[in-house]
Structure formats: C-alpha cells, structure tokens
Amino acid sequence: MKKYLVPLLILPIVSYAQEQTLEPLTATRIPVACGKTRTALEVMSKYEEELIWSGNEINGSVISVWQNKITKSFTVLKTANTGDFSCVISMSEGTNKGP
Length: 99
Fold this sequence. Notes:
By secondary structure, the chain is of the alpha+beta class. 18% of the residues lie in helices and 41% in strands. Strand 7 and strand 8 form a beta hairpin. The protein starts with a helix and ends in a 7-residue tail after the last strand. Residues 3-20 have low confidence and may be disordered.
C-alpha cells in the first residue's frame, strides 16, 4: 500500500533521471518523486521509518536510507545540499537478504 500512497501524498513533482552513459553502465529513465524534504520526512514518519544510514555526495547532496525495523519497509532519499528539496529514489514494503 505504501508504494501507492507516497507519490500521491507527499511529492507533487515526478522527475526522471537523465539518460547518460557511464561505461560500462547505461542509465535509463527511472521515475523519482520529488518535493519538500519536510513533507517526505512526515510521510516516512507515518510509516515509522528511521534513519539507518546516510552519506554525502561530492556535490553536497545527501543520500539516506530509512527503514521500519519491524515491517522492514524502507525508503532511499536524496536531499539537495540546501536541505529543503528531496527525491524518493526507491521505496519498498520489505527487504531481502543479500548474497
């Protein structure tokens, strides 16, 4: 249910990653939902997701991973270096074990 609510409730702008080639990878158009950081954080709070990791990019923006430790739902958020604008890069209702 989360995957349907978040784009409708929090993030009015839908963007697409620019196509570019990063040898040997080719980026494709991937939908992301963007809007005010405060609004994104309010919605993640409703899902009881807490910050479990964050890192700074070279350009000053921040990538953060938020997770509900009980349901295992998670959200990957990219926040502009100004802190007021964010994009949901990925969200899920659960996790899988890695290799």
